[in-house]
Task: structure prediction
Amino acid sequence: MPEINDIKISKNFYLKDFQCPCCKKVIIHPSLLDEMEKLSAMVKGKIKITSGYRCEKHNKEVGGVPNSKHMKGLACDITATDLQEVYNIAKKLKFSFVKLDEKKKYIHMEV
Ligand SMILES: [Zn+2]
Ligand SMILES: [Zn+2]
Result:
């Protein structure tokens, strides 16, 4: 038996890449997947999603803002070896918001 959400949804991503780690629920906006797919292609797959969809409980646990776009399938966080390079590329795509957290070493993006 394959794992739940072990479903290829684009060239570089599986549904499980975006699922909530606590309950495995997942919603994802097609525009977020589109932009993530473009980004992944441009950096040759060298990114890792660290947070995609979050249920309300998980969002609280990780200290997300109450209205977090992670709870609406409109945001995700990634890590990469060269965060600055990935950030510069992400800024050129159609994300509505991209933020580099240099301290915690991740990039948050929204559509
Ligand atoms: Zn959850
Ligand atoms: Zn985030």
The chain has a mean pLDDT of 97. The chain has three helices and four strands. The longest helix spans residues 30-42. The chain has one domain: 15-110.
